[in-house]
Design brief:
- The strands form six sheets. A ten-stranded mixed β-sheet has the order 1-2-6-3-7-8-12-13-14-15, with helices on both faces.
- The longest helix is centred in the N-terminal third of the chain and has 23 residues.
- Helix 1 runs parallel beside helix 2.
- By secondary structure, the chain is α+β, with helices and mostly antiparallel strands.
- It is 20% helix and 25% strand.
Amino acid sequence: MRRILLVIVAVIAVAALVAFVLARRPSGPSFALGDLPGAAEIRPAEYAAVRKITSRVRRPDGVHLAVDAFVPEEPLDGAAADKRFPVIFSYTPYGRSVALTDLSWLDRLGLWFQRGVTHLIMDASAKPGVKALLARGYAYVSADMRGSGASGGSVTQLDPRHGPDGAALIDWITDQPWSDGQVCMHGQSYVGWSQFAVAAEQPEGLRCIAPSQIFFESYTGSSRPGGVTAIRWLQRYSDYLQGFTDNDSSRGYATAPAVDEDGDGALIDEIPLDPAVVEPRRYPDNQDRSEHYYARATAAHADNLQPVRMAEEQYRFIDSILSFQERNYSYAEISPGVMLARAIRDSDIAVLNIVGWFDGFAKGGFTTYATLAGYRPNRLFVAPRFHIPLEITPAYRELFDYAGSYADQLNFEELRFFDANLKGLDSGWTSEPPVKLYVMNSGWRQFRAWPPADAASTPFHLSSGGTLSRATVAEGGMDSLEVDWLSASNYGANGSNRWLLMTAPDDLMLRNTLDQSALVYETGALANELTVIGHPIVNLRVSSNRPDADVFVYLSDVAPDGRVHYVSEGRLRLGFAEAITDNDAQALGLVDVKPELPWHGFRRADYNPQALRDGRVVSARFDLFPTAWRFRQGHRIRIAITGADSGNFQLNPAACPAADPAACPDTVLRIHYGRADGSVLELPVMRQAAMATRLRYEEAGR
């Protein structure tokens, strides 16, 4: 028995030693960059170790914000021993660091080998991308937002107070003895939104932002695309966010505390065993606390207004007023586009927009890039990923024969961006065309503008027999669809889609079965390949037996083997169809919003609950998610039209008042085609000459 114990101890000791070495080993030039344009050996590491500082920053209202700072140490091979560093800042509601409160010894061993983690708190320094930055002479700061993690206070979704809070944190960063006074921000989703909120305050030390996977305006871009409420996403996201606000350690994790109140050198024992019990509080070490810093901060989060509340009827329109703790604000006030218009466009803050083709927020990065391009240079980086995970999913890696690691490619692009804007290094970032995107079924391309200059809007007319035709259809006609209220656009064994955001489909998004309950229109087999890059637009002539209805449109690639590959989608509540207005309205007219795409106002005054009464025909013109897709020779282009996405999006209340798919009355959508004003799909098709070879640069930019 003693011998077995000695063996176990020896194994653990060796594992700990290996993990210690791995944790201190600088991130070398071994990034898997594949065929990424501009790829080169990553700049060598300069520092071998990191010093961590955990602190709190007090705001004027008494709320404390929890902060972790990481500072490079131990210069390598004669590198200059800098004492001040430019700083990369992540400002998050998802826990600046996570305490693992219920981890088995086997799991701990795995963490040691895989991540170099030798403790029960996973902080930002354990992430490969952050390690690479620290090793190359950047300090790194991660902070919990007000109302989350170990920070105090309470908030509503996308609370405007995050902007001034974040600006104060940047002021704190630039005042630190290890900071050189220059800061860039990065991160995705809510962390991407926080960058616009902070940049709008124009703190003196902020030099650049790299927002990833975030919308441009918060109404159609987040909670109500096309005016239809994304109920499944809002509920799932609220459940997810709850884990970083209630710090319930019974889940097996909680955000790490920021104050070692008992002074024993450990933070994890500052987490109460049961956060719901106020008195007496119990702690893992069985010692009482006098101030209960972490517990009191967590208790304040109970007043947060969760995202699912945005699905309520009172927030139905874009001009609805959101109320929280005697403060009122609108969707516009929490939209990155308005923040950009009010301050960012006139500042010197550089922007790297990071987008996933299959992300539910994908439109935002394109709109931000194109809108800013009229004021100052910025960059756009796009790959075929979902909101999460931070990699191309295996099914699409195989389908596209994707080379390299997206996580490494993103880290490389960010490093070049930071090097150019914080260190003044010639990283090649400023000499390349500003748009770098992956064309699905083709590979990486670079362009001078978005949309590309060589993309021409090409009409495909809906016509009889379920066909899409390049020729104008002279004869008028109509197809009818009885809405299948149980139809749900979910993909893979896990039933996910681009709008869930918390998960990605675990297989290809194939629509073979889903399209059986849809109206389908498709071309013949393509005689030549055709590449679409830009924003597809549909213009449907629609009527119904109900006063209002929703239309969902899916663009697909039909392969010769019969598989129907999802490409893009869009939706519109037809009560808004006739309210098309200048798309600058989504930014309150403060900026010229680009590209010029259909915008339906979405104000209360723009909605007509009787738009389809008495069989009226309305023109529903709206854009689908942008895409870059190569349709190969012999493939077919398809659109499928449905009237519901059950479980994912709200059922139209005018057509189905009970909101129960089993109880919805019979609803018919009629699609009218033919003649000059018939239904049409407009695709941004690239000139063949521009796509004939694997050009790295747009022809006009040579």
